[in-house]
Design brief:
Length: about 280
């Protein structure tokens, strides 16, 4: 296992390249990937084809939330900002949305998308989800979409979710989990950046959230995350086509990774939605 900061740098480089490459986002059928992972046509239309086309999520966490007007929503690893715009609409002008991401290129893209949207209630912050630039007990909702699997220190992230939620505050997290993942593929940078090699099991995820003091933790939705979804219809396909030198991998390595994925991981990779809450004080 590489040191934690080295893993974060590798991930940051990959996502910085992904969002700035010309092939990323808004291609032939922008929004089709977003709809395949759970967004409605209305959500993709309202956010705009370019923003929806830049989705690198693996679910739609807000669709499993009951976010109300006036509330504060925090998005961990907010990327290009698709979920921020949907949340901004839900909380309305009296509410607030905070997006945290560590990748400067992602934040710049999100900033441009937020400016174009006209929403005034979105605050973007650079930081790592293992040490959130957010006050204690200050948010009603934590959401996250396909990010925690990328963290080399998941227990710190779960602890941060617990710290920043108000008592009674809730979370809705869409993320990848794996079962029987081959140890030989754990250090593979392409599979790691693609949200697979860093993923833990469903049981470990549930235990991590509960150990951090979160309550009523359960899985709301599960779907197989197929090779087609991961590699063929998403901006993530930059890992195997347009940026062959990404993260030290050659085209041949990348092709081999794709073949390995299809052969060895089929049926072992799922996209889940986790929900739960911080207990009320004294409760
Ligand atoms: C797979 S993308 C998902 C982006 C967005 N949630 C979406 O649905 O499109 C992962 C994002 O998480 C960010 N990220 C990964 N690890 C992070 C960490 N440890 N701290 C902060 N941001 C992180 C990356 O910069 C990238 O923007």
């Amino acid at each position: 296992m590489k040191p934690e900061n080295e893993i974060r740098s590798q991930v940051q480089k990959a996502y910085g390249e992904a969002i700035t490459q010309t092939a990323c986002c808004g291609g032939a059928s922008p929004g089709s990937y977003a709809q395949a992972i759970g967004y409605s046509p209305a959500e993709t239309t309202s956010a705009g084809a370019e923003v929806a086309g830049a989705s690198m999520g693996c679910g739609n966490p807000l669709s499993f939330s009951e976010v109300q007007a006036g509330e504060t929503v925090l998005d961990l690893g907010s990327g290009a900002g698709f979920d921020l715009l949907i949340a901004a609409e839900k909380v309305g002008p009296e509410g607030q949305v905070i997006g945290v991401d560590m990748t400067p290129e992602m934040l710049a893209t999100a900033q441009a998308n937020v400016a174009a949207s006209g929403y005034q209630n979105i605050d973007l912050r650079q930081g790592i989800i293992e040490n959130l630039p957010v006050d204690d007990a200050s948010v009603d909702w934590v959401i996250s979409n396909c990010v925690i699997n990328l963290s080399p220190e998941k227990e710190r992230v779960f602890g941060e979710i617990s710290r920043v939620l108000k008592p009674g505050g809730r979370f809705s997290i869409s993320d990848i989990v794996v079962a029987d993942f081959p140890d030989t593929l754990r250090d593979n940078p392409i599979l790691y950046n693609s949200c697979i090699a860093g993923a833990i099991s469903e049981e470990e995820y549930l235990a991590g959230l509960e150990t951090a003091g979160l309550a009523k933790v359960k899985v709301n939705m599960r779907a197989e995350f197929t090779a087609e979804l991961l590699f063929s219809d998403s901006p993530s396909d930059f890992f195997n086509t347009t940026s062959p030198d990404c993260c030290g991998a050659s085209t041949a390595d990348t092709q081999q990774n794709l073949e390995l994925f299809i052969k060895e991981l089929q049926g072992k990779v799922q996209s889940l939605n986790f929900v739960g809450q911080k207990p009320q004080q004294g409760g």
